[in-house]
Each structure stands twice: as structure tokens, then as C-alpha cells.
Task: structure prediction
Amino acid sequence: MTEPFSKFLGKFFLVTAAALFVACGDDSSSSGPENTESSAVEESSSSAEVSSSSGNGDSGSGAGMTSSNSGDSGSATFSDTTKITYSLKRFDGPLSNPHKGFTVPTGGAWVFVPEFEYGPYGSLNNKAWDLVSYGSGYQQWNKLNPAKGVYDWTELEKLLNALAEHNMGYALRVLPYTPSFIKSDFPPQEEYDWTPPFVYEMGAKKIQIDLRGTDYRAYAPVWDDSVYIWAAKEFAKALAEKYDGDPRIEYIDVRAFGEWGEWHTSHILGSEMPADSVLIDMLDYYASLFKKTQLVLPSNGFGDVYTHALELGITKRDDGFIGIPGRPDTLLRAYNANLPTIAENIAGYKTMLAYDDLISGGNQKWTPQRWVDAITTAHLTYYVLDQDNDCGYNFYKDNKALADSMSKVIGYNFTVAKAELETVISSKDTTSTLNITVKNTGVAPCFFDVYIMAEFVDSTGKALAPIGEMVRIPKATFKDGSSQEFSFKATGVANVAAQPGVSIALSLYESEDAFKSGKIPTVRFDNDGLQENNKLLLMSR
Result:
């Protein structure tokens, strides 16, 4: 890259001819923007600094020119300064970015086959996928852990790889039990009890329950049984050995107890949750295993258990959004602990539209304002767009404009608010300095390290040379609503940005290695000028 670039710039290194540089500045400032997505205004000034042996010579100034004595006998120095101030606009349309935003149910790799009508390639042309930045769903404990010491990750791996191919991660929930499939009196246990059979064969106890609102009876694990807890911890150990730090995993819920693993037994009458000491012990065990992947306390972990989770760096999710008043406020403790917050509505979109606000118990219907308030109040980083089988199709069809706009509100959202390039050319050296101001216009910090890179690029977008060094922003330090200023300086590079066909690109990477290996940046600025390779082009003409 260095040798071709030096050849490209060779004709601009005639730094001893001051008039040439003045002409370049004049040419740049007299040309208006042409076919640009980000426009710029250029200012050029010229100065000639003359030194004499007198040591105390005259100095004078004119329009754009100054002269002074340097005290060095017989030397002459020329300099030219060009400034380009870029005018930047917000990106028009939805903007998804990694490690934040919206998801829809992704039960398996089959989501991406054309036969699934609600998928990204399905016959319905479901544009809700334009907003989806990660997949989510549940896995059955008995499927992943069919026998003692035996683990089958096959189907999960297929799903993780399919999501990775579409630049998406996966939010993992492994469920021990779901009352959703109790459809008769004493149905087959494998239909609803997803605790592996070997756990009972080893002596774990179960209890008969009644399904609330029905005459159905079934069985549930005794959640604080010592054999059950041992098996749950053994599975957690295997899960951590396999997936802790796996970049395909967004976060993992600690779902060892209760129906849907949500740490409650609201629908299975006769079943009781363990004491707080048991719950805290399980959190401690998970935290001892998972050193890299974000862990999540399920919806009904409250009180001292919630407090302890935050102390361990385990964040909180809530699954009662919109339908239950006040639920967004419960996540503020996690936000104030500088952790990402996660939410899911109390029911599917179509179901919630049919709610009557006067229903006893306070189940509210879905409204656009309640949806916006929920996201902003809880400072959400992650949100399930819809949980019904239509994968957000009806929700997005009804609320496209609102959902598009909120894709740039949820989580972090980086907007370049100001950008200025100053190039100073003298007979001694040439220095280009790019100063930018970036604002996080989202409602949450960025919870991963992000790296900003500035480059000179040609008319095709190909990088010609870096402008200074890559800048790292540590995770959780770029707060929502805050602005940060960054400076990139390149020395020995001529006034390239003032020449036809040359401009500047800004890029956001998740790692320094991603840039060095030539990968396309995965994070996008919320500005006009985004290219297909996700770089933001600042064009001067």
C-alpha cells in the first residue's frame, strides 16, 4: 500500500514552489460540491515566512499573508494552510448496528431458508429484518444435554453459523421447563419438562402441579433439589467451556429455575421457587465460569438477588414490557450500574393490540407512545421486536416509520457532528490534521470496545493512506448523550484531500485486528455518505 501511494502523491511534493500550493488552495475553494453525500467548505490561506541575518527585522502582514524574521541567516520558509469543513447530515433510513438493537425469534437455521415465509428470504419480503441486528430464542436443556456428561451442540452450532453468515449474534436461553405445551391432563413429560431424564434417574425429585386457569395436571422439578442443582451446574460448566467468549453469542440468560427459566412459577400451581440463597449461589457459580460473555438475570429476579447480580456484573432483562405499568423503571438499576438492559413485551404484538387497559391486573394495550417510552425510560440496549411466529412482520408493517427511527435510538448511535481537515504545507514538512466531534445520540453506552480509523481514499473508496493512528474507545465509556472529540494527524502527506478524486473515509471497527486484516467495518455512523463497505465518506467535491 505504501509504494503505490507514494507514486500517487509524487506530483504533490513540490513544496519549494509556494505559488503551486496557493493555486491548489484557490482551486479547491473555488470548486463547489459535485455529486456528494457529505458536502464541504474549503478555506485556503498562504503565508511566506522570511528570515534575515539582522535578528530584528521588519514584519508585515497583508490579506492572507504574513512575514517575519526567524533569526536564521539566509533561510527561506514557505507555508500554505488549507481548511476543509464538512457539512454532515443524518442517515436517512433504518440503521442497525452490532451488539444492540432489535431481534426477532430465530428458532433455528431454517429461519434463513426461502421456504420460511417470514424469514429474510421468504415470500412475504419481511422488511422487519432490516432492523434485526441479532437473533434470539430458546434451546431445550434435554436436547443439548441428552445424557450425563453428554452434550450435543449440533443444531445450536448450525444456528450460530447461519446467524454469523448474516453478521448477527445470538442471545441464548436454555430452558428447563415450559408450561406452554401442557395441553391435556398429564401429557408426556418430554413435551413440557425439558430437564434431562437422567437427572430424575439420578434421584432428583419432581412434584405434581396444576396449570393455572385449566384443569390440567402435570409435573415439575423440585427446583432446590440437590441433584437438580448439581446437574444444572454441570451443564453450566459445559456451556461455559464451549461458548464463553464466543463472538457469536450476544449474551446468555441464567435460566436454571422456574417456568421458561424465568425464575417464577406463576402458572404451575404447587411449584415453588428456591430461597434467595440458592438463587444467589447459582449466580455466583455462573459468574465464576463465564469471564467474557455477558450474563443476564431473568425477568423475575428481584430484590437482593437483583442487587447481587449487578455486583457480579450480571445484567437484567424484563419480559413484562408495555403490558405491565412501571416495568421499564425496573431496569434503571442495571443501566445505572453501567450494564446493557434487555426487554421483551409481555405478549406478542397482535395479542397486545387486543388488550383493554381496564383489565384487572393492569395489562395495557400496545401503543406507539408506550413503546417509545419503554425504550427510552429503560435506556434499552436490546429489545425483542415481536415474539409471535410472524417474526415482527405485522408489527413492522404497521409501524415502519416509527421502528426505523427507533433503530437509531435504542442502544448506542454514533453521529459525526463536526469534521474539519487542516493541512499545513511548508518547505520543511506537510501535516494534515483531521478533527472530528462524534456524539452518541442513542439511549445507552456502547458496551464493547470500538475503534475509529481515518483514511485518505480514492474515487473508488480504496484506502490510499491512514491519517494518524487508530483510536480505541473502551467499552461502556462513550455514554449516551455525550460527545467526544478525536484528532488524527498525518505528517509527510501532501494536501491530498484538495485533489480531484481523493477524499476521507471514517470507519468504526470492533477490533484493531479487523482493520489490519482488511475486514469490512461492522459498525456504522449515523450519517449520510455511508458506503457499501460501511465506511463513511467525507467528500470535498
User: Anything to note?
Assistant: The chain is about 25% helix and 25% strand.
